Amino acid sequence: MKYSMRVMQTLLAFSGNAQPQLALTRQLIERGHEVRVLAHRAARERIEATGAEFVPFRRAQPDLDISRRETDTLRDWQARTRPGAGMRLLRNGLFAFVLDVSRDCAELLARWPADVVAFDWMLIGGAIAAQGAGVPAVALVHCPYPLPVAGAPTLFTGLRPMRGPLGALRDRLVNRIASRLLQSGLPVLNRARAEQGLAPLERWEQQLLGASSIFMMSAAELDFSSSGALPANVHYVGPAFEPYARDWSSPWPETNTDPLVVISLSTSYMDQRALAQRILDAVAGLPVRALLTAGPALDTSGLELPGNARVSSFVPHRSVFPHAALVISHAGWQTINAALADGVPLLCLPDGRDQPDNAARVLVAGAGVRARKGTPPRRLRKLIARALDDPALRRGADAIAGALGASDGALTIADALEQLVSAPAASAI
Fold this sequence. Notes:
Layout: E1 6-11, H1 18-30, E2 34-39, H2 44-48, E3 53-56, H3 82-94, H4 98-111, E4 116-120, H5 125-132, E5 137-141, H6 164-183, H7 186-195, H8 205-209, E6 213-216, E7 234-236, E8 260-264, H9 273-283, E9 289-293, E10 309-312, H10 317-320, E11 326-329, H11 333-341, E12 346-348, H12 355-364, E13 368-370, H13 377-388, H14 391-404, H15 409-422
Parallel strand pairs: 1-2, 1-4, 2-3, 4-5, 5-6, 6-7, 8-9, 8-11, 9-10, 11-12, 12-13
């Protein structure tokens, strides 16, 4: 490496976006670059573990921690309908952060001029501040492509592709609705732009699309939008994983060779306790070893644990998944990427947010099955047994594993940032 650069990152605390973005942070630090990560206080320990400097948000809900009920301001899990949950996510998440994130990022850039800003796509204020400071910015996307694309169902609909005139009509309709919903955030976005001395935009999407690059941290083969006409600055770079132990210590005796089923229900709070109990009731009596990884968001006290189940507060997914025959998941994007990277099929029980969309992508890939989160234990038990006995699901997962293993997102993005800083490009907006 012939030079060192300053990189400013923005990070939403303890959501599925953290792991791939912090993998990039580690890669940049290892290359000798200086990285400051602007984030909520709950992320301090994870950020500092990478070697980067943690900078707390001062204005943008600094105490936000979506792994805990009392500090989760998104509160989309309280909505009774999927559209209601989606509107809460827009109002309380995507739009609510714009002004204060822009102000906090601009303040940091004023006292610490960065060479490039790598912003979480949900924290679009980072892109506004970067543009106001004349600094190139790239978007880090930890989910399927989030903007409407002609010929594909848009994110947050949970829909699978549909061919023919009826499918084309359906996609045009839902994409039009999605665009209108994004437009409702335009006033606050333009207010943030005005504060940074920038001209107003006509459409919300223009701010994200104006990034030097939009890095999709997964494989194109796992995202419906990749088959549509995407902008030239959108790049699928593969998943990125933080370091993990290669060895996993099983809590069962070596003589127990029953198939391992891993139950993983999100690191963010989504009121998932009842779902966890239904799954535990479903695996009771099955000839499996069931491992529930609780994470910070699930209180396991009082859960009724069958004799073939164990609970762990935390196990790195990439450590245990290679030993698993099936992963039962809320269908978070990072859990899906980790399971399929190891060729493990999934039983998806989407709970909200982008999870129905993620589950749809697993189904189309032939790498898993899906059920409603309210599915009773008896029905879940049959689905688990069927998934374990279906070799086609393992073949589908193996096929996606090849695509996910083709490139390391952290390496690819780090290379691109070095090239961008050595030969900066003009902003597209």
